[in-house]
Amino acid sequence: VTYPEAIHWLYELRLFGSKLGLENTRQLATHAGNPHDQLNIIHVAGTNGKGSVCAMLESIYRRAGYKTGLFTSPHLVSFRERIQINRELVPEADVVNLTECMQALLRHFPADRPPTFFEVVTVMALEQFARKKCDVVLLETGLGGRLDATNIVTPIASVITSIALDHQQHLGETLSEIATEKAGIIKPRVPVFSAVHQPESNEVIRKVAVQNKSQLKFVETEATTCLVGKHQRQNAALAQTTVRA
After folding, report:
1. Nearest-angstrom CA–CA distance, 209 and 50
2. pLDDT digits (tens, 9 = 90+) for 58-70
3. CB 24 within 8 A of CB 121
4. Which residue intervals define the domain Mur ligase central in the entry (predicted)?
5. Are the CB atoms for 3 and 98 separated by under 8 Å?
């Protein structure tokens, strides 16, 4: 398999599954040996800012000497942007190897219910990070949180950047409904950090955190950054608070 052939095969996978849920991703990860169980993961969700917060967290940990894994989407130019280690794009040869691994694992699935593109790429990323023994992984959700393929993980921290009306056809028509989907990344006794400001969204996040006995910190400050915009100062404060906890 060549790199162009691997990319073509990945793009031929379905974008959306026939039914929502984590079953396919969990099954695929199980066949791969559950690579996420070997990783220290910070799971980041939110309508806006999650890519920026992931990048900030990655920079902080890498500069402190940790080997970082970064999983974000979508990519801008190259598929390889989605999976990075110490800010270096995944090599083409590794994409080929990971794709061949996934092709073999997909034989375990019925023809009418194969994993989607994002489910496969999520497990590819987790496998790559485990193979390369990353110290910390910054994992960005694709869509929502509760039913997102990345939500098979149990992280060391959950981060919710912001809540706004977006993807209503998938996540709900109100801020509270969307907040419920984003708060779905909260896991039992895993600390949660949030820069969400709307009272109705905060109430949802607080309720889910209490149900999971998870310590919750709302970050309302701003941090100094060279990036332009109040939202980036808030993102920087959220990243700094998460690291310091």
Report:
1. 19
2. 999 999 999 999 9
3. no
4. 44-211
5. no
Structure tokens at 144: 């929502």
36 contacts 126 by C-beta, under 8 angstroms: yes
Q: At what angle do helices 117-131 and 23-31 cross, to 10 degrees?
A: 40
**Rounded Cα–Cα distance for residues 153 and 177 (Å):** 22
CATH number of 36-90+121-244: 3.40.1190.10
Domain ranges of the chain: 36-90+121-244
Name 196's Cβ contacts closer than 8 Å, sequence gap at least 6: 46, 160, 161, 162, 163, 179, 202, 205, 218
Tokens of 29: 């990860």
| Apex 47 CA angle, 22 and 239, nearest 5 | 95
Burial class (CB in 10 A: 0-12, 13-18, 19+), 6: buried
| Residue 196 contacts residue 205 (beta carbons within 8 Å) | yes
- Residue 70 tokens read as 């970064």
Q: Is the overall model pTM greater than 0.85, yes or no?
A: yes
pLDDT tens sequence across 5-56: 999 999 999 877 656 789 999 999 999 999 999 999 999 999 889 999 999 9
Q: Which amino acid is it at 102?
A: M
Distant-in-sequence, close-in-space partners of 160: CB < 8 Å, separation ≥ 6: 44, 45, 46, 145, 182, 183, 185, 192, 193, 194, 195, 196, 205
CA distance 19 to 14: 12
